[in-house]
Amino acid sequence: IDSVLVSKEAIGLDNLMAFYDLPQTAKELEFCTEARRFIGLPFLPYQVSASPTLQAQFADLQQGFTLTCPGFYAPQGRRLRLATQPEDILGRYRAFRYEDKRFTNFEMETSAYYAFGRLLQHEVLSLTLILANRATGEFTKNASKPMEALIQLAIQRLTS
Known about the structure:
Helices cover 34% and strands 19% of the residues. It is built from 5 helices and 7 strands, in the order βαβαβαβαβββα.
């Protein structure tokens, strides 16, 4: 909680890239196929990486693999009087392993940023402030101080 995570890679559970021609490597497609099978998804997600150039500027920080969910409720395991498909999706996210990869966090934007970065040949990197651990029920007490520190760190490193 209140730590910074650099998203080296992201997997998108949204359908955004169905509307674009996102090139995927054989390894990325293999990973996505296994994630689809293990999690029980009715569609094939997509995988993209951050800019290696920008990653190098933050190499001393915790590195992770971000799961990008297309919504705040069921895709993130929240139930509001409706059953979710597949059941226990949070447990599946936590249990998924492929080679040396596991999901370190989830949110709603990173895979789209990385995909557009790849398509437009832009340098893109996502820095995430971890605000909660849903598995343990632990939540930040006050995000403003660590968020301000993260903003200052990013500005300092990107402008030096």
